[in-house]
Glycosyltransferase RgtA/B/C/D-like domain-containing protein
Amino acid sequence: MRSSKVLVAILLLAFFFRFFQLTSVPPSLHGDEIGVGYNAWTLLTSGAGEYGEKFPLTFRADISPLIFYLTVPAIAFFGPTEFAIRSLSTLTGVLTVFVAYVFCLKLCRLYGLLNSRICLLFTLLMAISPWHIQVSRIGHDASLALLIQMIAMIIFLHFLEKQKPGLLLLSAFLFGLSVYAYHTPSFTTPVLLLLLLVTFRKILNRFRPILLLAFFIFIAVITPIALHRISKPLGDTRFGGINIFIREQPDENLLVTIPRRFAVSFINQLNPVSWFWDTSSSRYFNVKNNGFLYVLDFGLISLGIWNLKSKLRLFLLGWIIIGLSAGALTTGPVNAGRILFILPPLLLFASIGFFSVLQIMLKKNLNLLVVLVSVYILGLSNFLIQYFNVSPQLFYKKWEYGAKEAAKFSLSHESQVQKIVITDQIKQGYIYVLYYGQKSPAWIQSVFNKKHPYIGYSAFGNYEFRTINWERDRYLKQTLFIGTPDEIPSAFFINSISAPDGTVLYGIVQTD
């Protein structure tokens, strides 16, 4: 009974951290989030994606489809709003905290090594995790993928406990479904299944016919999206644009360069600055003086790995290696979304490490529990201050602050001018016009339009999304310009869009 009350309190805490000021922190919705909302709206109203394809298997720049379809009910209920876009990921985040508790209990029963107190601590660490809080507060599909993968593992572990074949088949279906949630499970899910197969081979050997059927179910589920992606040129797929091998030279020795690139990229995934100190440069995170994890987590994770003397340690380490490998296959700095898969085993090790410290203190008659708790409270307080108060003032440009205002202003004036030119300094500026203007894919196809080489459109109707050359463009008649102060001299502004700190982001000019 006491555990239930503690669990409810943790879930309420998780709910608060994920829903508080949801539409204003982060300070604006970036283009990918608006893209989710727009495509969910077009699915609701016409059954098509933004390019006019009916019920597509991938959206936009080869993005996995599940988040778009699952956002449709939120758009239907709340309307085309910012809250509707972020609510799915936020609700998913809260559910993941609860699922983390159930997952830990399943491991308790299977290995007989853990206890309910460790599971409650594991759940609490998930609830207050800076990493998980941030990814749960934006329209990001990584949160959804993690939830589905964890539910699939719970059902798999339940099968090992109850040995009911139907559970294995359901687990296979959900593992297959995870591939539709985010691009990373296309790698992590199949390799995780191999890890589960090796780890629990003694039990699974007794169910070979059912195991074979589960394999076919998994293949059947992933086949449609796999064939869809295989049918595209590699350069048009998500992986084709972000993998570490895209810059291969014809004369390279691939047997040498591929392992070397992977090794270097894998090491880069372990950058301690991003993990424990500062995520200012991390896409969609941008919090100073805070890493993905708390500084104390490093010591507790290390202690947990050291003290967990069982096969469970090998399984959890294998899980972590799989997740890091997924990140290592892609370009750029550490991407918290691509490696979110490893958060549960890391926090499970941290929970075990925490209780290991308590055992050491009991043996040596040390009362340092207050110290440990205080360090976590200080870390959480610092994160909350930086995330809710400081970061919106520092990193508003990272979140395309002003794009919504630019779109709404242009929409209110589109019938008054012949042409509207919006700077391409607003990334994916077109999608804001489509979403806030509720312009359908049919409308796009009915007017002049020009596809952007990477994503979306560079022009449609009387809109253009491009760099503004004022020396040339100033002579265009009956044109509304929305551009940066570097593109348009402020002396010509008839209006402007400013940042939270008062900085002018975009100037507005209308020619006669």
